[in-house]
Design goal:
Order of helices and strands: HHEEEEEE
Structural class: alpha+beta
Distance between the termini: 102 Å
Shape: rod-shaped
Largest sheet: 2 strands, antiparallel
Strand order of the largest sheet: 1-4
Helix content: 10-25%
Number of strands: 6
């Protein structure tokens, strides 16, 4: 006969459960990181046309004029779409077991009577048959549960290039000067 559920749960060494959980989380974390890197590459490779600036001028007669700068091509990463990175914040292993044992006793009594009667004599015999049955019942329920919690984290700071702005426009003359 196979092992009981409770025994099977107890036979798994806790260090093995923890090691398997840790390696499973490490593999899952690696897959999540690889997915985020692939997303970053896709965002860097996908470009769109962007109007970087619009100048609004209110004229003396009250009319408004808009002048758009020339469109430039920017990657989705440059316009501010970032890949999401995740990490496992915690993991829990929970094993529980419920054991219920029952015992029942059943007693059966059989009584038999035989009687003979004759002239001035009689006889009787009584047979008692007592039978005891004892029943044992055992229920074992085992459950195990693995809980993990993932949280988003900011992307690594060096995934994005540093932007250095150089403005070669000549400064506007100071008022009155």
């Amino acid at each position: 006969m196979g092992q009981s559920v409770g025994q099977e749960l107890l036979d798994v060494p806790l260090p093995d459960m923890v090691a398997k959980l840790a390696f499973g989380i490490a593999d899952a974390q690696r897959a999540l990181d690889e997915n985020s890197v692939e997303t970053a590459k896709a965002l860097a490779d996908t470009t769109i046309e962007v109007i970087p600036a619009i100048t609004e001028t209110i004229k003396a007669d009250g009319t408004v004029e808009y002048v758009a700068a020339d469109e430039i091509e920017m990657s989705l990463l440059q316009v501010g779409l970032n890949p999401t990175f995740y990490q496992f914040a915690e993991a829990t292993i929970e094993v529980s077991m419920d054991i219920k044992t029952t015992t029942a006793t059943e007693t059966n009594v059989k009584v038999g009577v035989k009687a003979k009667a004759g002239f001035a004599m009689w006889s009787a015999s009584i047979a008692i048959d007592v039978e005891h049955n004892r029943k044992f019942g055992k229920e074992v329920h085992g459950t195990s549960r693995l809980i993990t919690r993932m949280v988003p984290v900011p992307p690594p700071p060096r995934i994005f290039p540093q932007i250095n702005r150089v403005d070669n426009r000549t400064p506007a003359p100071a008022p009155g000067g």
